[in-house]
Write a structure and sequence with these properties.
The complex is a heterodimer of chains A (160) and B (285). Chain A has 160 residues and is mostly helical. Chain A has helices at 2-18, 31-39, 45-61, 69-85, 93-117, 124-159. In chain A, helix 4 (69-85) runs antiparallel to helix 5 (93-117) and helix 5 packs antiparallel against helix 6 (124-159). Chain B is an alpha+beta fold and 285 residues long. Helix content of chain B is 39%, strand content 27%. Chain B has five helices and twelve strands. Chain B has helices at 2-8, 10-30, 36-73, 75-110, 275-284, and strands at residues 120-128, 136-139, 152-155, 158-167, 170-175, 182-187, 193-197, 204-210, 220-223, 235-243, 250-257, 266-270. In chain B, a hairpin with a 2-residue loop joins strand 3 (152-155) and strand 4. The longest helix of chain B is centred in the N-terminal third of the chain and has 38 residues, at 36-73. Chain B starts with a helix and ends with a helix. The chains are: A mainly alpha (160), B alpha+beta (285). Chains A and B meet through helix 1, helix 3, helix 4, helix 5 and helix 6 of A and helix 2, helix 3 and strand 1 of B.
């Protein structure tokens, strides 16, 4: 719990002050999704759902989004991540990264749908091209680097 | 019985609860509910604002120390260059002073009233938007410092946007590049008005330009004052492309902004211009 709150604070600061420095073509990695993805390794589906809801509420408060937009998509993504992971082998990197990519795309599609539902819709092509796909790919690349770094760290630790 | 049912279907209950809660919040926000949603937003924002302010302070201090060191190394040639620039600016100022006096005289002759003086509050940018869907900024000045909703925000390069949310110690600024932002604009040379809109890609476009209007590339774009949010005459940028599709009723122009929105660190919030005078100026156009 303490680790999760610490992670939340770190993500809030990093997402709003550091990721703008590494944005590519106005696209930044979604560290809120990344934290949910990492935290969901040790959570049950309801716990991941509530964690996603809390993360989403903070993300909404720190953006121009209506309160509840990201809370909705991240609570659903958190739940589905744990359910999908029950079917996956934790040791294999590639399926885990595919899962993260799908989570990013799913979250983007849900945000798009909800924005359209509440009359704040944007063009689908423009959103897909400029926001959903690049955002999901960038987040997956950062996630992949983190995952590989962690694995490498473990290998070095064992060898030492 | 109910407890047993909830325990048994815990997964479904939690998931449904979270989704319904989020949907309820969104519905309340869209319907401009004035109690729970603003309170929750303020609570969430105020709980992290001190950390964001501390990070910005740390970042600025580190940069200042580094820049002071770098500045010291190049101070002599820069000093010489600045002296030359001061001389050039002094002579330009003399010309402008003369023009100002002439303007005052002519305004008096025509019976036009003086423009209301604009008062501004400086603010530091403490956070950028946490998603890729919106283009907003969080500044370190809020209701306690006289900031209110729909106040225009400017920077040395021109218009930045408007305040859309205010908490006691911070405020959210919607950039003009935001997909749901729109600003009434005036093309400086041709005196044609249009509507400047943002987009998901961050590109600025002017819509509703009459087909017959001739817009040269590089023409300056300023706010028209229509709508009552933005004072008239704030620089936005220049026209870099004009498109007129066959069969369309209007032309569209692409604008290159004068402000680099990804590198904004300080802004000015326009707090003190009489809004009635802005609206009357808008109607007079």
């Amino acid at each position: 719990m303490i680790a999760f709150v610490g992670g939340l604070l770190a993500v809030v600061v990093l997402q709003t002050t550091v990721t703008p420095l590494v944005e590519l073509g106005r696209v930044r990695p979604d560290l809120f999704l990344l934290l949910l993805y990492v935290a969901s390794f040790r959570m049950s589906p309801p716990q991941a759902c509530l964690a996603g809801c809390l993360l989403g509420l903070y993300q909404d408060a720190l953006s121009g989004a209506p309160l509840g937009l990201n809370a909705f998509s991240l609570s659903l993504v958190g739940y589905l991540l744990v359910v999908a992971r029950e079917e996956l082998e934790e040791a294999r990197v590639l399926p885990q990264l595919v899962l993260l990519l799908l989570a990013g795309l799913g979250s983007g599609l849900m945000s798009f749908g909800v924005l359209a539902f509440f009359g704040m819709g944007r063009g689908f092509g423009e959103s897909l091209l400029w926001t959903m796909v690049p955002g999901a790919v960038y987040t997956t690349v950062i996630g992949g680097l983190l995952l590989c770094g962690t694995r490498l760290g473990r290998v070095v630790e064992v060898k030492l | 019985m109910i407890v047993r049912l909830v325990t048994r279907y815990r997964r479904t209950v939690v998931l449904t609860g979270a989704i319904l809660f989020s949907f309820l919040l969104m519905t309340m926000e869209v319907r401009r509910e004035e109690h729970l949603v603003p309170f929750l937003k303020r609570l969430l924002l105020e709980s992290v604002t001190p950390f964001l302010k501390a990070t910005t302070y740390l970042k600025q201090t580190t940069r200042d120390i580094w820049e002071n060191y770098v500045d010291l190394r190049s101070v002599r040639p820069e000093n010489r260059h600045l002296q030359e620039e001061i001389e050039a600016l002094r002579s330009r100022l003399r010309v402008l002073e003369e023009t100002g006096r002439e303007n005052q005289r002519l305004r008096g002759l025509l019976g036009l009233r003086e423009r209301e003086p604009v008062t501004v509050v400086p603010a530091a940018v403490v956070a950028k938007d946490a998603t890729n869907w919106f283009h907003t900024l969080l500044i370190d000045q809020g209701a306690r410092h006289g900031i209110g909703r729909h106040m225009a925000v400017i920077a040395p390069g021109g218009l930045v946007g408007q305040v859309v949310d205010v908490s006691p110690s911070s405020a959210r600024v919607q950039l003009i590049t935001d997909p749901i932002s729109s600003v009434g604009v005036l093309l400086q040379g041709s005196r044609v008005t249009g509507l400047l809109v943002g987009g998901q890609s961050g590109r600025l476009r002017i819509k509703y330009i009459p087909l017959r209007a001739e817009i040269p590339l590089g023409e300056g774009v300023i706010t028209s004052g229509l709508g009552g949010v933005y004072p008239k005459g704030i620089v936005i940028g220049k026209v870099v492309a004009v498109e007129g599709r066959s069969g369309a009723l209007f032309q569209e122009a692409t604008v290159e902004p004068g402000v680099n929105y990804s590198q904004l660190e300080e802004v000015l919030v326009v707090t003190g211009q009489d809004r009635r005078s802005l609206r009357s100026e808008g109607r007079a156009e």
